Amino acid sequence: MTATPPHAPSTVMQQNSDAREIGKFGAMAGTWWDPQGPSRPLHEINDCRLDFIRQRMSLQGARVVDVGCGGGILSEALARHGGTVTGVDASGDVIAVAREHAVESALSIRYEVLTAETLAAHEPATYDCVVCMELLEHVPDVTSLLRALRELLKPGGDLFLSTLNRSPRAWLETVVAAEYLLKLLPKGTHDYRQFVRPHELATMLRATGLTVREIRGMRYQPWRGRAVLVPDPSVNYLVHARLD
Questions:
Q1: 19-242 belongs to which homologous superfamily?
Q2: What are the boundaries of each domain within the chain?
Q3: pLDDT in tens, 48-65
Q4: How would you label 194-218 residue by residue, b for 16+ Cβ within 10 Å and e otherwise?
């Protein structure tokens, strides 16, 4: 199998993105698939994110969109487990890397340089599963993004999110420790002011018409090269919601 050729919708992209954020992650594009490079944490938390999804729905034959897919680490895992996957990102640099790696991996994944809002305008009620990991804390308008994610879902479809809690512990672990002390991430990767508390996110999801099914903490263990699910959502956390 080969990667599906790009086919962008014929309209101006609806913007809910920050040029600085796009540039920040675009600068990492060349090392995205290096498991010891700046994207190392994404490689090491990927199994935990994938397991969270697979334990709550079957990917086999499901139409899946990975919003904010970056270089495709999670998109490829979703495809390997049976999903028909579309990946979208506002950065053309990382989408180029994702397309190239999918070809090298012999995976059929459709990648587009799009925001969720633009995709939702063209493909409403299309997907069985919408995945949006580590993106909420990087967009200017979280509510707009959540509305678009809901619009992409078929009735009965599942939404999976991950983001960072706006808590002192999250600031210490993800900004001070990960960026400055341990240097696991480039400095400036995160802006604490954009972190979202779980109860805030749950309220916004319900306001869009989604049912919140579960919120679980995700504990990253860099010394073990992995992440695990935990009850405490005080740093990273995952959310499962459904369009009932």
A1: Vaccinia Virus protein VP39 (3.40.50.150)
A2: 19-242
A3: 999 999 999 999 999 999
A4: bbbbbeebbebbeebebebeebbbb
